[in-house]
Design goal:
The complex is a heterodimer of chains A (about 290) and B (about 160).
Chain A (H helix, E strand, L loop, with lengths): L1 H15 L7 H43 L6 E2 L9 E4 L3 H9 L3 E7 L12 H9 L5 E6 L6 H9 L4 E4 L6 E5 L5 H13 L3 E7 L1 H11 L4 H5 L9 E6 L5 H9 L4 E6 L1 H6 L4 H5 L10
Parallel strand pairs in A: 1-3
Antiparallel strand pairs in A: 2-4, 2-5, 3-4, 6-8, 6-9, 7-8
Chain B lengths: L5 H18 L4 H17 L1 H5 L4 H20 L2 H11 L8 H12 L2 H12 L4 H8 L3 H28 L1
Helix pairs in contact in B: 1-2, 1-4, 2-4, 4-8, 6-9, 7-8, 7-9, 8-9
Chain lengths: ~290, ~160
């Protein structure tokens, strides 16, 4: 009853209203316009998407170049000597390296090897071991020598840390353990007279023994069974920039009293292709004694 | 029977849906816009809508949803109550029942008003009303029950007044 009354009341109220004049043509026109607009927006979005993707890919390429943005940035294999390790590796630090006249070239190393610790001086070893596994730059400077790590640190002004490796040079000439005094002298003289050599450091048996003890501190039986006289003397050689490591190596390899000529030891540690060769030897570098 | 063409559907139902919206509390402009928008959506998916049992039910639901969205945005409840008078231009000639129904509806809260219009004017099944109101059918039943109760009271009062006169 009530509901019927309500229904009829509602219907009457509805019928009494002024009619609404909807225009279906307006609706069709509006829908057509909407479809055109939607399609245009879709086209714009697709174009924007494609250009964004292209831009990002381009940006990606640039990001790879961040590691090689200038002629100074090279692949790890192209570094002949690591003088300083710099952490972290980022665009800002790369720009500072590019700008510094102290830097000859540098390589991005995704994971700094722990074996680099073996090439650190006693003071810097802990710091160098601490950055192992991190993303860093291996830097080859124009004129290696003591104080180069501190000089680079000043360039970074707190934006990166620089750890100098112990000065190994480009070439290490190992004399035979039993080399005679005259043989040793003639090799030394050849080095002094060599115009390709910028710098040389002579390591006697006592210093070799000190290095040996330190590098193998975690293998006491080995250290105990070795005397200074069992170790060879050696010469660390740094070449003038641009001189051929191979040519010099061959020249010294031929001399009497020379046992082995190692080249680019520090560089081989950061180059994945040659890492294993020396990594084996320096494995214990960062181990606790 | 051939398929209902959209244009035919529009011509038969546009006016009815818009009127229902006015009774639910919209002003004429809002009712017109919401109805037009609901039909626009129906046009976009006409193949689906025209196969429904009650294509007009779908449009009622969508239009009523538009109304609710609009109200939620504007939050102008008072105007809504007044609009029902603006919407009904011809309010001079009237029988007691019609006036009673109009006044009774005007006193209902918006949700009850929508439920009543959808159920008893548009004659939608409870499920569609629930769709339009964004709630369960049980809630619609309860809402309608409350509406009927309060309207009955109002109607009784009106009748009582009429009897006194």
């Amino acid at each position: 009853m009530q509901i019927d009354e309500l229904r009829s009341g509602l219907t009457t109220l509805s019928d009494e209203m002024e009619p609404f004049e909807g225009d279906v043509r307006v609706l069709h026109r509006r829908e057509r316009r909407r479809r055109v607009v939607t399609a245009s927006i879709a086209v714009v979005l697709v174009v924007a998407g494609i250009s964004t993707a292209a831009y990002l890919r381009h940006d990606d390429a640039r990001r790879v170049q961040v590691i090689a943005p200038s002629p100074k940035a090279v692949a790890p294999g192209a570094i002949t000597r690591v003088d300083v390790v710099v952490v972290p590796a980022n665009l800002e630090v790369a720009a500072l390296l590019d700008a510094s006249p102290m830097v000859a070239r540098y390589a991005h190393v995704a994971r700094l090897p722990a074996t680099l610790g073996a090439l650190a001086s006693t003071d810097a070893r802990a710091a160098l071991c601490a950055v192992s596994g991190k993303d860093g730059f291996a830097v080859q400077v124009t004129s290696p020598g003591p104080g180069v790590g501190g000089a680079l640190s000043r360039v970074f002004a707190g934006r990166a840390e620089a750890h100098a490796l112990r000065f190994y040079g480009d070439i290490e000439v190992f004399l035979t353990v039993g080399a005679s005094r005259s043989q040793v002298d003639s090799v030394h003289n050849a080095v002094y007279a060599d115009g390709d050599i910028a710098h040389a450091r002579f390591v006697g048996k006592q210093e070799a023994y000190a290095i040996f003890r330190r590098d193998f501190a975690n293998q006491p039986p080995l250290v105990k069974s070795t005397k200074p006289s069992d170790l060879p003397e050696s010469i660390f050689i740094t070449l003038r920039d641009g001189k051929s490591v191979d040519a010099v190596r061959q020249r010294y390899q031929r001399l009497a009293g020379v046992d082995t000529v190692l080249t680019n030891v520090s560089a081989k540690l950061i180059d994945p292709a040659t890492q294993a060769q020396f990594g084996q030897f320096f494995r214990s570098a960062c181990a606790q004694p | 029977m051939g398929r209902l063409s959209f244009d035919e559907f529009y011509e038969s139902f546009f006016d009815r849906v818009a009127r229902a919206l006015v009774l639910a509390g919209a002003d004429r402009d809002l009712a017109c816009d919401a109805t037009q928008e609901a039909f626009a959506r129906a046009l976009r998916r006409w193949r689906t809508v025209c196969d429904m049992d009650r294509p007009d039910g779908w449009v009622y639901v969508v239009a009523m949803n538009r109304l609710r969205d609009h109200w939620r945005r504007s939050e102008r409840r008072r105007e809504r109550t007044r609009d029902i008078d603006d919407g009904i231009r011809d309010n001079t000639s009237g029988v007691a029942t019609r006036l009673s129904v109009r006044d009774a509806i005007a006193t209902l809260p918006p949700r009850q008003r929508q439920a009543v219009v959808l159920r008893y004017l548009a004659d939608l099944p409870l499920a569609d009303v629930a769709d339009a109101m964004g709630c369960a059918t049980g809630t619609v039943k309860a809402t309608l029950h409350q509406a009927m109760q309060s309207m009955r009271i109002e109607l009784d009062d009106e009748e009582g007044d009429d009897a006194d006169r």
